[in-house]
Fold:
Amino acid sequence: MKLDSHSSSSAAALQRMLVAAALLAVAAVLPAQAREGVDVGKTSSFAGLVSADQLEQVSQRQYLQMRQQAAQQHVLAPEGNPQLVRLRAIAQRIVPHSYEWNERARQWKWEVNLFGSKQINAFCMPGGKIAFFYGLLDRLQLSDDEVAMVMGHEIAHALREHARERVGKTVATRGAIEIGSALLGLGGGGRTLADMGGQLMTLKFGRDDESEADLVGMELAARAGYDPRAGITLWNKMVAANKGAPPEWLSTHPSGGSRIKDIEANLAKVMPLYERAEKPGRGFGPPAPRAAPASAAGPD
Structure:
């Protein structure tokens, strides 16, 4: 029997529907494609107790105050300082890879500054306010890859909202006092932020937060074209500089040896990202040993 054109088109349509249904059925039983990179789970629910907008505003004010004080004391690296140029170039490569981790990062007014202190220190405040201390670059003679590992780690704290989580935990543990403030219209989160003063710059994170920042930071650096294996050399330098103990700014983190083991255990997850990534077109380098940056050297 010969089919007419209408019957043929109907049969073809039915066949396409059956194929589509079969594909959907197969997709339903197959596991979802795993995300490439590290897996650190969801952000803490405690972060939701504090307004991200408020926290970022407080951070911006504190960072501006720190920058102004450093300028008055002549310990803020000026535009054109070679190490500041270096830091900003590395940040420019890393920041675009942060958006996947926190959509707010697209609207942050990212800022990078170098402060003339011998301390081995760096941080990134909520809202993308990054600070490096000259001692970190000079005393450890960090390579570009090692700087990227530090910067990725600090940016990860902001992306994963660890400061917001810590403030949220404070709000949650204040109990009746904060409930009373809320009833009076003060708001628990706002009151806690107001009471914190300049603590956001010196906020210490817990062990889990530090470990999480290690992994996310390593992925950020790898995607930006920086070798994540530099985390191993970085922490060997950290251990040597601090005689086996982590520096004060990471005192809650596992020992350097444990950290190196964690990095090694996760390298396989990020090395393919690094190998495919576009590499930096320009290389920099650490400061000349025992040198001080122009107009950025000062007291600790």
